[in-house]
User: Fold this.
Amino acid sequence: MYEKLKGIVLNTIRYSDKHNIVHIYTDGRGLMSFAVPLGRTQAARMRNALLMPLSLIDLEAAVRPGRDLAMLREVRRNYALSTLYSDPMKNAIALFISELLTHVIQEPEGNDPLFRYIEQSVQLLEQMPGQVANFHICFLFHLGAHLGIQPNLEGYSKDSWFDMTDGVFVPSAVRGHNLLQPQEAQVIYLLSRMTFSNMGFFRFNREERNRMLDVIIGYYRLHNASIGTLRSPDILKQLFV
Assistant:
């Protein structure tokens, strides 16, 4: 049975001498894996160009119950991305987002709010002029709401600690829990006010931004055991001043 879907390409891995496996997050069926012939024809090269990380596509898939791999019958670009691949900073952010999503998205069911959030975030990153140094921080923080791990902001005060294990602010240290001291806990609260529209007004130096990235990834790992070693954060840490 053929089905028309919208998709966000997460990654491509080499499967054999003749095929790649492409992981695509779709609006109607969640995460799907496709066997895609390598090929050397112009048509194959054009198809592969449409399957870059975070490409936004329309696709027609042959869906067969009980099979891990689906087949792509047709794929078309539904939103043109140019600066995402030509701008080194945007490209580094895109590779980081695609790597992280590859780890955290495992569900073979549709999740419309999550799909729309990722889709709209990719479009915003493509459209943004100028400084995008805070984009990945903003994206990560608000992604948590769609994954069910958003920090609970109730009970916050300037003297609060942030309990990374339970995702809540607490008045004092809790033995056996992963905690942020009040100074860093304030940053968690600050990030809750950041949006893609106002993120340019948040000023951080490289050390502060890199620490925030480490903390947020650490928080994700505490709440999602599927996140292993990530390679792309090291690239991001070198790019932004």
